[in-house]
Design goal:
Strand order of the largest sheet: 1-2
Number of helices: 17
Mean pLDDT: 92
Strand content: under 5%
Order of helices and strands: HHEEHEHHHHHHHEHEHEHHHHH
Structural class: mainly alpha
Largest sheet: 2 strands, antiparallel
Shape: globular
Distance between the termini: 44 Å
Low-confidence stretches: 5-29
Number of strands: 6
Amino acid sequence: MIKNIIFTVFAVALFIGCTDDLDTEPRIEQSLENLLESEPDAALGILGKLYGGLALHGIGIPGSGNQQSDIAGDDPGETVFFRSMWNMQELTTDIAKNRWGDGGLDPLTTASNWAPTNKFFGYLYNRSYFNIAQTNNFILDVQKADEPEAELFIAEARFLRALSYYYLMDMFGGVVVVTEEDGVTGVRRAKNSRTEVFEFVENELLSIEETMPSVNEYGRANKTAVQFLLAKIYLNAEVYTGSARYADALMYSEKVISESSFTLDDDYQSIFQGDNHTSSEIIFPIIADRNTVQSFGTSTYLTNGSMGDTTMPISDFGNSDSWFGHRCTPAIYGLFGDLETTKDSRALFWTEGHTYEMTDYRTWENGYPTFKFQNQYSTGDSGESNFSDTDIPLFRLSDAYLMYAEAHLRGGGGTTGQAINFINALRERAFGDTSGNITEADFNEQFLIDERARELYYEGHRRQDLIRFDRFTGDTYIWPWKGNVLEGTSIPENYDLFPFPLEALQANPLLEQNPGYTN
């Protein structure tokens, strides 16, 4: 599997460096072109490193004292792509609050006082461009090398680059698009519009759709992953470009569902346990492994961060460590009704020793932690570990079901009957029977935004969903600690985008700050 090659080829520490905006010149101990020519498996190994850019801080074992981070940061674990993305997509919403409060986490967890100097905005931005720079260099050199799988490797690299630009577009709006045609020495120019970034991502995905294999090694992108990401950008196209693309969102959601071999798992919890690499519905994962892909920035951040051994039996969840960090808010677990009596198996919250209300988000016992992500295996005891084996299901089939339903509701075609059938398939799994099924009378926007929360909470989608449903900024929807007020309050419209980090603006004087923020 790809996890086994993320480290093995990289004894030569390729591409280690820091990126500020696009002033990106990776330091290379050996010519990449020469390495590709001299080592028969080098291209696959370097491709593994590109995938590792979603999961790892750099090289070295986290916490060992000898680790090197690809990008500058106070703590290498904080700089990992998934951890940065999750902080910005989940902590800023009604899903979860973090109690640590250090180094800029409070402004994220309360959706208040956002500033370009907040390091967490810089981590996501710099990590994304670091990954883009590596990808551009890889494409350039694979094009020159005599590599029999060059076409496939380049297509996978382009998918990963499109994924980076998708997240940049979602969080920052218009950004500078740089490709292999710009080389690897960095460029300084004005940012592309958000619509231009959208069109770049769309064109990249469409151009590689037929090149990608229908089935690929687990952990690597396939044709379905490309189609899933197309469905996702089309569902959000009205936010990104001002023009709705719901028919396209429905069409690509339907392709994901009907043209692939992915099927719903029988058990919801098993999708988020330590042996979830066997899942039948994970389309594209971010790999974790307690031995070969050790990271404090993937599922370890969720499993350890959501555990506290003073109130929870952490060993029951496969943990040997607990960080007393994240708890969910009443806004999410309230969607399941009475947690003592609900039949919905997605309600995976620990209540003992914790209060329902979150009167102080800095107090561990306020709010309910979730054990949705856990190190325990679905087959039984996996032993205890400080690092998680649980892969992040970045794309999974359930989301395609929900995207189809939403695209239909927004006028994208399809049928109401099919949309409801998809939703009820998820609810029958959750309830174990048809008692939770809905009818056409229940099918509306409010139900859909709530159902997306019930199905997808903690997976990195919530901020995007709230923005698409016009419930993130303003006072249409209020949740605990929104705007740094216990009862919640309105937040300004410019918070639909994050500010560009100060170091990016300094590195590229032509980069214009997003409206509503001062440098």
